[in-house]
Amino acid sequence: MKRTRTIQCEKCGHIQIMNKTKSTSDKKIEYPAIFKEQELIECTSLPLYVKLTHKGFWVTNSDGVHQPSQDEGCNRNSIMISEDCLLYVYKLAFRHLLLSMKIVHPDEIDSANLVPHVVVRKNKDDPFSKYKTIQNEHFLIDETALSAKNDFIIMELDKKRDLHMTLIFSKGLGKKMNLVEAFINVIKLLNYSPELINVYTSLAYFGNKEINYWYETGNLYPNNIYVPVDYVPPVKQIHELKITNAGSII
User: Fold this and answer.
1) Which residues have CB under 8 Å from 239's CB, separation 6+?
2) What are phi and psi of 94, to 5 degrees?
3) Domain count for the chain
4) Per-residue model confidence as pLDDT tens digits over 233-242
5) Does the chain have fewer CB atoms within 10 Å around its N or its C terminus?
6) Is residue 237, in this structure, part of any structural domain at all?
7) Is residue 151 assigned to a domain?
8) Which three-class secondary structure state does DSSP give residue 230?
9) Dihedral (CA of 199, 204, 207, 209) sign
10) Nearest partner of 163 among 107, 121, 196, 104, judged by Cα
């Protein structure tokens, strides 16, 4: 049965009845099978108490390689979180889940989604820079610290100092699933299988080479973290199109 909704024009009072289609957010999200394990369901999740460690400012060299810098006079304002920091693990683990579920596409993993980072100043002359004070600082994170919007989810470390970490950004992401619930499930999984923490920290270059593999092998989650040596990525088929001089597809 079709559902309808009524829209009335504020200016002329015209009433229009429209069919209401089921939105993406109404669709039931099917998590990987491991999340149905009763032992995992009962695992603890929030609140979290984590120590933030960083490697310096996040800079990108002329070759496009992301690396840390201890130069406080650089023009970058975000610090690069260390691999041994749980915040680093959270970002990679959350990305792993969303890619495996095909909620986000590999093409959406740009540099900001790839590199675990936190903005600590407005500019290099900012007198309120948290570059030094944030190092080794502990943060208490509960559900109120998780802010999910249409296109992203952030973790508020300290609202008063405007310290937060974007876990992932993707257009329309918030309409596809409950992002806070998804993050809580990731924490439960890390408590259920704590060995995964070291696996995520061992990945080279923020897990960059694993991105496509995670997306293509979601049925193996969470045992699809490492790319097998003999793995052969699927070949993208190129379809040649016939087009007119004006660019129209024939």
Assistant:
1) none
2) -65, -45
3) 1
4) 878 777 788 9
5) N
6) no
7) yes
8) coil
9) negative
10) 121
Quick check: helix, strand or coil at residue 193? coil
Is there a contact between 164 and 81 (Cβ–Cβ < 8 Å)? no
Per the structure, the complete domain to which residue 71 belongs is given by 29-220
- Rounded to the nearest 10 degrees, the angle between the axes of helix 179-192 and helix 195-202 is 110
Name the residue with tokens 């041994």: 84
Name, in order, each residue with C-beta under 8 angstroms of 112's C-beta and a sequence gap of 6 or more: 166, 169
Number of Cβ within a 10 Å radius of residue 177:
20
In terms of Cα–Cα distance, which of 65, 167, 73, 168 is closest to 121? 73
Does residue 107 form part of some domain?
A: yes
Q: pLDDT tens across 101-146, in order?
A: 999 999 999 999 999 999 999 999 999 999 999 999 999 999 999 9
Could you identify the residue written with the tokens 């190129």? 238
Question: How many Cα neighbours within 13 Å face the side chain of 101?
Answer: 22
Has residue 78 been placed in a domain?
yes
Question: Under 8 Å CB-to-CB from 63, ≥6 apart: which residues?
Answer: none
